[in-house]
Amino acid sequence: MKTLRIALAAFLLGGLPLAAVAQAPALATFPVGATTVTASALAGNLTTIWELAWGPDNFIWMTERPGRISRVNPATGQVSLLLTLPDVTESNESGLLGLAVMEPFPLSVPPVATYWVFVVYNYTDQSVLKEKLVRYTYTTGATTLTNPLVLLGNIVATTNHSGSRLLVLPDRTILMTTGDALLASESQNRASLNGKILRMNLDGTIPADNPTPGSLVYTLGHRNPQGLVQLPNGRVYSSEHGPSTDDEINKIEIGRNYGWPNVEGYCNLPAEATFCAANNVREPLTTWTPTIAPAGLTYYDHPAIPGWRGSLLLAVLKDNKLTQLTLDAAGLTIPTRTDFLTTFGRLRAICVSPQGKVYIGTSNRDGRGNPAATDDRILVLENRAFVPTATRAAASFAFDLFPNPARRQATVRLPAPAARLTVRDLLGRPVLTQYPAGLDATLDLSALRPGSYLVQAEGATGTATRSLVVE
């Protein structure tokens, strides 16, 4: 059907079915291992870019804190404004914040070119600042967003510590981070929505399998989380602002407590250790003291920049840098932290394209930076020497996939050893990754929802993709 054809076309063309244009002038180059990464500007003259998200339409979706939602053509840099929210309150850290875009009806017949656009922002209600999550509808070719539906509102807010990132999970629920709104004790109050990561269905209702029946609270004990990402293996990580010490990277685990305000960083003081033992506290993977103000967080796993593969990439505000965070095999420790891109000011938003390009949004016009004449900007980081391997593989690399349709398991039979097998949903997101030891591999599909997927095999002689239907 249409969505499957679109996804396949994106892979066959290296990830982006858009016309090629002349390369933008290089603003900087830097090494990542043996790779030279070039930084250039895709778009400029923006105001406090808060979110960049790679959409299922192969465009970049962007929020600016004053209230603007736009689509950005990643080939030309053209910014198409879709909507300026009329009730956004921008004051200090408040305003339009996180965004997520998804295709709600990927298996509809006939196909419907419709997307749901989720945004979280601050607004004023009877002179009181609050926060809400709203779902809009976008139809391909339209010039605006329509059908606003408030999924969650009346969240306590102030002009500081509002969060908030959004993440749509493969099970079609959505995570939303909230800050403590300068009410630190509320982070430990399970009846409060502040200082939490919330999980809800796409219509705002409470999932039946949340940790506490009838509660949106997924995790608690957060101060001000401003980064959120899920890896192909399902693990979720978050970045979080500390006070004057202990900015954190956390592995998010359902039902866990992350300590604030009783714990700052690790459970390494006597009172903290006691609280951690009694309250199921999950310690951070790494911390920074003094603080750096960590913001947007993404995962990089593309051959274009081999030195970044398997790492988290973190946009940093106060310390004006991009930080690579390597992960161990279990995803439980961060062995190394390496900094890049230190000359463009405050960095807040980040996303990765299917071509392996990294897009970063500066935040120099947020009242705390020193904006250049063309700020704020979307920067592109890329390996310009990288030549994508065609996904349309030679016959010698064609692989067998059976049964298809499949239920709980499927077998992949390879003609030659493969480095990796990846199952992607129709939004192009990895939902399962496996590293086969031989020529046969069994895919465990038990955690996947029924529907259409793409199975991608990467080997020394190329990459091949086949469609798979899970019943």
TrEMBL record:
The record's InterPro entries line, in alphabetical order, gives: 6-blade_b-propeller_TolB-like (IPR011042), Glc/Sorbosone_DH (IPR012938), Quinoprot_gluc/sorb_DH_b-prop (IPR011041), Secre_tail (IPR026444)
- Keyword Cytoplasm present in the record's keywords: the answer is no
Where in the sequence is the signal peptide annotated?
Answer: 1-22
User: Has UniProt tagged this entry with the keyword Transferase?
Assistant: no
One Pfam family, short name please? Answer: GSDH
Keyword terms, alphabetized? Signal
**Name of protein:** Glucose/Sorbosone dehydrogenase domain-containing protein
Organism of provenance:
Hymenobacter antarcticus
From which lineage does this chain's organism come?
Answer: Bacteria, Pseudomonadati, Bacteroidota, Cytophagia, Cytophagales
